[in-house]
Amino acid sequence: MPDADIDHIYDYDPAYIAGILKSVKTIAMVGASADKTKFSYGVLRQLSEIGYDILPVNPNPNLKEIRGLRVYQSLQDIDKPIDMVDVFRPKEELFGIAEQAIAIGAKVLWGQIGVYDDKAAALAEAAGLQVVMNRCPKIELFRPFWKPRLDLKI
Fold it and tell me: Any idea what the CATH number is for the domain that residue 60 is in?
């Protein structure tokens, strides 16, 4: 098994990622922030606006809503089925979040850019979850529309 401390590049078949993004409806976003300057806020906004049911997860007891969406303090507090757990936490926390995702019956564990752990991936996959790490669903949703402009001068 590769050293989990190495900055791996995870290559995924575009059809694998597209299949996940087409199949999931409910996304629990662990590490969601109400700070508009944070990357997680922009991803939450975009995914919510295009129709995903976003369930922000943040342990701050004073944070009750983000963009009108109820904030949950933990994955275990969510009272409905979750298709995907999207993780905006340090990679060192991914294994514990993978355990929680398995416990709540999630179908997908998704680690944002910079969030990866081979042991967490192996655990989740062994439990039947699909896994994506070191990627952003917001970026992946728009990737098919990016066209290289080879005629531009550098």
Answer: 3.40.50.720
